[in-house]
Each structure stands twice: as structure tokens, then as C-alpha cells.
Write a structure and sequence with these properties.
Oligomer: single chain
Largest sheet: 7 strands, mixed
Number of helices: 5
Structural class: mainly beta
Number of domains: 4
CATH topology of the largest domain: Immunoglobulin-like
Strand order of the largest sheet: 16-15-13-18-23-20-21
Length: 537
């Protein structure tokens, strides 16, 4: 890459108004470290680390069940939460908490989740990693309007902005109303049907409204959805209180305790962030399950940690400090799409936005009383800390183990590939963040796949982009023309690409025809049009 193109790329990332003298160091940092985004500083004093106990999101109970289906209800509502000690923060929540309640479902049983929107904004709920029919996938213009809204309206933050008055994403053609004619708007309540045709996995649900996914998730609209099955239940893995979902997310806070976010339009009637944050927003407070730098008392036993990166743009390298004698502190047993065929041991795990890693940590490898920090080697200052585990001195029984073989995982056959497709994720000077050179246009499919066939999809990047595919998980076949990387094992729905990387995946879409999406899961990139539709038929 020559110097002229290098400096030009830096200017495009920071915005058209940036000067080269400022842009060049930022671009150099992006290329050297592969980490996107810009820090947004909080405006109040931050609490000490490891003073707040780790909260565990409550499990949502079904309101009723029948022979084949469990029914759940969630109210999306504004809530005042004490996230920082002694400070109240207004959050947009699922069920009044951040994270929202954990939905637990069973493979082979249908789950129907009814959402009621009492927020001041429209919403769209996407089950990330869910194998779902198209009308329950959370397509970004299938709006759930707030209770009391007029049909066809998509309220802004003040609840007064109609869809016809909303601006589309920069560079998007024919989008004055933020939705095509096929958009399925509903007022007040919407039910999403998840048939349960998938294996056990750690999924999550979050807002997916077009142009506003970044602020929606930032303000609290995220929660776990765990799928269970018999194959997983038969294994001697940690369970109960030693099976912990950990949602890791960075946030920034304004002086009044509210979430601070650099929206280009503070009323959130129009999408986008200010130019300086076009490559992603980084917070200076690390939250785990909604608590800043929490601590947890643990037995000298094995724990299953379901790690989810729910940050808008931050990439983490998670390690335990101190490492146990002999290393291999984090034994990976699962990825986005469920259990691996066999465990993989790591000293550290690199996790991009939306990725999940299920790991087992054996705290009996530490002496009683040891304080074990979960650290972020990609962070600095306060963002280098995540949480702390305090190892108990009492004796406990632990009958769990991590078998050498976990479950049978089908390997997609490269010789069965019927089509190869290329998807380029790039920053355009004129159109912002693009897929194959174009900003997102709802209803315009860029690929059509046949149900039940295996395809090879090739993703390439300019800067850092975690790529997410809806409907079905995929398997990484190669990275930069070589073998998959150390964090590519198993079934994935999000794959992390560093600057100027190329990754090939094998994918097979099953069960459901319709329109689905692939997009960058840097939420600021996504909101600024780095998405595309594909069709399955």
C-alpha cells in the first residue's frame, strides 16, 4: 500500500473534514493493530474496579406452554438502573433490566416470544444466531412501533417523528421513509416464532432497527438466549450456578449518568454518528452483565463461562491473570453455533463484536484465596480490566469434566460446493461503508442461494470488519489462503476479519426460504449501510 492511498484511507475513515496530519496516525494504528473505533470519554468519575458483585441476568419463565410450544413475553421499556454505584442511568431495556432476561429454550420445541414496545422509539428484535423463518428474523425495516403510535409511523426519540420524515442512510437510494413497501410494520406488540430446529448454543437477542442498531444496543437492548439439547445435557460439563453467561460490553456515561453516545442527531430522528466515530464507538467503562468491572466469588471447581462480546466496536483479547501453572487457562468447548467436536485449549481468546466463546475454567488450579483477573490485552488503562474471580478457600466437590470428545459435528464437504460468491467489505469515499461497493438498499438482494446446497462465500476487507450471516451458521474453510485461525473452530455466525484479510467459509441454508442479511457487526459500520440482503429459495 503506497503512502498516498494509506493517508487517503485514514482521511476517509475519520470523515471528509479530517486533515491528513490527524488522519495518518489513526490509520496507522488501525492497520498496525487491527482494532477499530475511537474512545468516547465519560464525563463523571469512574468507580473502582472489582467492588460490584457480578449480576446474573434472570431466566425468563414462559407464560404458558403446550405440547410443542413455549410462550414468552417481554416488554421493551425505559428503566432507571444503577449501573455505576450511586448513579442512575436511563436505559432502554428488555423487561426492565440490562442485560434483558435470559430466554432458555429446548431444541425441538418451538418458542414464541411476544415483544411489547413501550419505548419512545421503534424497535426490531433479532435473535442473533437463531435459525428462524424470515418473518421472525428481525429484518431491519420490520418495525415494531411503540404502543399508541399511528400505523406507518416510526417515532424518533421524542416519539413524534413519522416514517415519511426520516432520512435514509447516506448514499442509499430511494429510502426517504427508511423502509421499502414490503416492510412489515406492527404497532404495539409482535410475536417472533423460533421453531427450535437447531442444536444447543449460546445465542443472544438485540435491537436491529435499520440505521439505529448502534444506539439501540448501546442504550441497553440486548439479552441472552440459550438453546439446550439432549446431547449437551449428557456431558459432564459445569451447570447450574457454575454455568455463567457473561455479556461483555463497553459504554460511556454523561455527567448526569445517562449513556453517552456520539449520535450525529442527538434526537435520534436521523441515523449515524459524528465523523470522528465513523469507524466505531469505544466506551471507557467495561461492563459485564451490566456491572462495571465486577467481581465474583468462585469455588475451587470448574466453571463454564459463556463469553459474549456485546460491544458496538471493541475487540478484546481475554486472558486470565495470573495464568494457572501450565497455561491453557481457557478450554474452549463451544463457539457461536454450539459445542465443538473436541475442546481447544487457549491462553487467551480474541473475540470480536457479536462472537461467542464457551470456555471452561478450572479454578482448582489456583491456590485458595487467589484473585484472578479477567483482563483485556487489547485495552489500555481502565479498559485493560474486565472482571475478577476470587477463589474460595473452602473445599467443594466437583464431579464435572471436559471430555476429549464433546459431540459429533458435521463437516460441510468442499467438493459439494455448487456456487462461490465474493463479498467485499470496504469504505467508500462517496457511499460510506459498503458491501461489494454499494451501501445497503433493503429489498435489493445481492445473492440467491438454493435451499440445502453448499456454497463457498469469500469475505475480504479493507479495515477491521466482523462479518455476520443470518439464518444458518457456517464453517471457516481458510483464512488468507491458509488454514483457519485459532479462533475459527466449529459452527460460526460471525467471523472476525482484520485489515486486508480474506476468509472463505462454507455455508448451507436449510428449512426457510426468504430474504435474509449479511453485514458487518461493527454497529456503527452496520448503521452506516454496511449490510446486504441475500435470498434463499
Amino acid at each position: 500500500m503506497n503512502r498516498r492511498r494509506f493517508l487517503g484511507l485514514g482521511a476517509s475513515v475519520l470523515g471528509a473534514g479530517a486533515v491528513v496530519a490527524v488522519a495518518a496516525p489513526s490509520a496507522a494504528r488501525l492497520f498496525a493493530e487491527g482494532r477499530p473505533g475511537r474512545m468516547l470519554a465519560s464525563e463523571l468519575d469512574l468507580p473502582e474496579a472489582f467492588r460490584v458483585p457480578l449480576p446474573v441476568p434472570p431466566v425468563l419463565q414462559p407464560v404458558r406452554t403446550d405440547g410443542a410450544t413455549d410462550y414468552f413475553e417481554i416488554t421493551q421499556q425505559v428503566a432507571k438502573l444503577e449501573i455505576l454505584p450511586g448513579v442512575k442511568t436511563e436505559a432502554w431495556t428488555y423487561g426492565g433490566s440490562f442485560p434483558g432476561p435470559t430466554v432458555v429454550t429446548r431444541s425441538g420445541r418451538t418458542a414464541v416470544v411476544k415483544h411489547r414496545n413501550e419505548l419512545p422509539v421503534a424497535s426490531v428484535t433479532h435473535l442473533h444466531g437463531g435459525h428462524t423463518p424470515a418473518d421472525s428474523d428481525g429484518y431491519p425495516v420490520d418495525l415494531l412501533l411503540p404502543v399508541g403510535a399511528s400505523a406507518g409511523a416510526a417515532p424518533g426519540a421524542a416519539g413524534t417523528q413519522g416514517a415519511a420524515g426520516m432520512e435514509g442512510m447516506p448514499g442509499m437510494q430511494g429510502m426517504p421513509g427508511m423502509r421499502p413497501a414490503a416492510g412489515r410494520d406492527v404497532v404495539g406488540e409482535r410475536s417472533y416464532t423460533y421453531p427450535g430446529k437447531q442444536r444447543a448454543a449460546t445465542l443472544w437477542y438485540h435491537d436491529h432497527r435499520m440505521g439505529f442498531t448502534g444506539p439501540g444496543v448501546w442504550h441497553g437492548l440486548a439479552g441472552f438466549h440459550l438453546v439446550q439439547d439432549d446431547a449437551e445435557a449428557a456431558l459432564p460439563l459445569p451447570r447450574g450456578e457454575r454455568d455463567l453467561p457473561l455479556m461483555i460490553a463497553d459504554r460511556s456515561f454523561a455527567a448526569d449518568g445517562s449513556f453517552r453516545y456520539p449520535a450525529a442527531d442527538p434526537t435520534l430522528a436521523r441515523p449515524g454518528v459524528t465523523d470522528a466515530y465513523a469507524n466505531g464507538v469505544l466506551g471507557d467503562v467495561i461492563l459485564v452483565n451490566g456491572a462495571p468491572w465486577p467481581r465474583l466469588d468462585v469455588d475451587r471447581a470448574r466453571y463454564r463461562l459463556r463469553l459474549l462480546n456485546a460491544s458496538n466496536a471493541r475487540l478484546y483479547r481475554l486472558e486470565l491473570d495470573p495464568q494457572p501453572s501450565g497455561g491453557d487457562a481457557l478450554v474452549q468447548i463451544g463457539s457461536d453455533g454450539g459445542l465443538l467436536a473436541a475442546p481447544v485449549a487457549h491462553d487467551g481468546i480474541e473475540i470480536a463484536p457479536a462472537e461467542r466463546f464457551d470456555v471452561v475454567v478450572d479454578f482448582s488450579r489456583y491456590e485458595p484465596g487467589t484473585q484472578v483477573r479477567l483482563v483485556n490485552r487489547f485495552g489500555s488503562g481502565r479498559t485493560a480490566e474486565v472482571m475478577r474471580f476470587d477463589v474460595s478457600s473452602k473445599q467443594v466437590q466437583d464431579d464435572t469434566s471436559v471430555p476429549d470428545k464433546l459431540v459429533t459435528v458435521e463437516a460441510l464437504d468442499p467438493s459439494a460446493v455448487v456456487a462461490t460468491r465474493d463479498f467485499s467489505f470496504r469504505r467508500s469515499r462517496s457511499d460510506g461503508w459498503t458491501v461489494n461497493g454499494n451501501p445497503y438498499q433493503p429489498g435489493q438482494s445481492i445473492a440467491t442461494a438454493a435451499l440445502g446446497t453448499v456454497e463457498r462465500w469469500r469475505f475480504s476487507t479493507d479495515l477491521h470488519h466482523p462479518v455476520h450471516v443470518h439464518l444458518d451458521h457456517f464453517q471457516v474453510a481458510s483464512r488468507n489462503g491458509a488454514a483457519p485461525g485459532p479462533y475459527d473452530a466449529g459452527w460460526k455466525d460471525t467471523v472476525d476479519l482484520r485489515p486486508a484479510e480474506a476468509v472463505e467459509v462454507l455455508v448451507r441454508f436449510t428449512d426457510y426460504a426468504g430474504t435474509y442479511m449479511l453485514h458487518c457487526h461493527n454497529l456503527e459500520h452496520e448503521d452506516m449501510a454496511m449490510m446486504a440482503d441475500f435470498t434463499v429459495q
